[in-house]
Amino acid sequence: MKRIMRRIDRFCLTHPRFGLPNLMLYIVIGNAVVWLFGIMDTTSMLRPLLTFNAEFIFTRGEVWRLLSFVLIPEQDGFWLLIALYFYYWIGSALERRWGSGKFTIYYLIGMLLNILYGTLMWLVRGSGIDITASYINLSMFFSFATLYPDTVVLLFFVIPVKVKWLAYLDAAFFAFAVIFRPFPVNLLPVVAVLNYLLFCGGWLFDKLSPSSVKQRQKTVDFKNAARQYAREQASKPYSRKCEVCGRTDRDHPELEFRFCSRCAGYHCFCIDHINSHVHFRE
Q1: Is the pTM higher than 0.85?
Q2: Which residues contact 106 (CB under 8 A, 6 or more apart)?
Q3: Which of 13, 95, 202, 230 has its CA at a distance of 20 to 30 angstroms from the CA of residue 76?
Q4: What angle, rounded to 10 degrees, do the helices at 188-208 and 134-147 form?
């Protein structure tokens, strides 16, 4: 995954004009337009004509389905407005973080994975399945929660909730769809997660690795040791004392004192011994 992402980053760096700025805005507007036309569609034929279905593409030549399936809204009325606003907010945040080129590639790969899966199911089963971009849009939330886990949103415009907790709820919805929806549409959430893992999996796995967890614990211990050190020094006539030579900032105000981040705990050293001392271990 990291190798692929390095190649994508290199491509975006060497092709700065690649990508469609405000891509999510166009998708949201397209969803709204399709919804409005759907209200006026008394035959209920508009949605079936726009979904991705490999059978109709290869047997009838309806190639517009390769793109139009991302414009189909899954909600209606007020909930559609909420969903479209949420998609635009998340997509815009990801585009600002990654750049237009990388976010465009992210969405295109999500579309491509759905197209490949739908085509494979048609070849295996002999009949196509209708696919929309609902899980592609929902999977963006995983990427957003991975990059901004502590961002607070107002659930129902009232309840403040951190994004990472909503991501768990989103994951439960994906799991429910995998378990209870009929095959093969039940695997569409898995296809969407593959795109998320491709772009965020390497960073996520590094964060959850034992070495990373140990480093975070060490950082927390260092902060606790710093507070303890400050309490101990409050009652002493000096604020800094070298652990090696014993010189203090009161007796030698011209000396520079530093703290070692490699030692276990919070230990101070003068400039002469900061790089030459034996590190304290637990």
Answers
A1: no
A2: 94, 98, 143, 195, 199
A3: 95
A4: 10
Q: Which domains does the chain have, with CATH numbers?
A: 2-208 (1.20.1540), 211-270 (no CATH)
Extract the tokens encoding 154. Answer: 């107002």
Distance of CA 280 to the CA centre of its chain: 38
| Inter-residue contact 255 to 273 (CB < 8 Å) | no
Question: pLDDT tens-digit profile of 90-125?
Answer: 999 999 989 999 999 999 999 999 999 999 999 999
Q: Which residues contact 256 (CB under 8 A, 6 or more apart)?
A: 270, 271
Q: How many Å is the Cα radius of gyration of the chain?
A: 27
**Helix, coil or strand: residue 255:** coil
8 A C-beta contact, residue 202 and residue 1: yes
| pLDDT for the residue numbered 1 | 67
**What is the C-alpha separation between 130 and 244, in angstroms, rounded?**
72
Q: How far apart are CA 203 and CA 101, in angstroms?
A: 19
Residue 237, Cα to own-chain centre: how many angstroms?
A: 50
Q: How far apart are the first and last CA of the chain?
A: 36
Residue for token pair 């011994």: 273
